[in-house]
Specification:
The protein is mainly beta and 55 residues long. The protein has no helices and four strands. It has one domain. Helices cover 0% and strands 64% of the residues. It has a four-stranded antiparallel β-sheet with strand order 1-2-3-4, with no helix packed on it.
Amino acid sequence: MEKFPMGTVFHYRLGSNIIFATHRRGNIVHGQLTGRVFAEPYLEFAYQHTNTDKE
């Protein structure tokens, strides 16, 4: 049986209507996701990361 590596894992936190998360995997050294509950059931997010090329 062929084994597949685990996908990207985000560590989420929720405070009031604010959602934020961090992750890293592969060439992503540090990634951040932040957002809010815009109007149920809609979410609005911004994402940024730094990779091994420092981009």
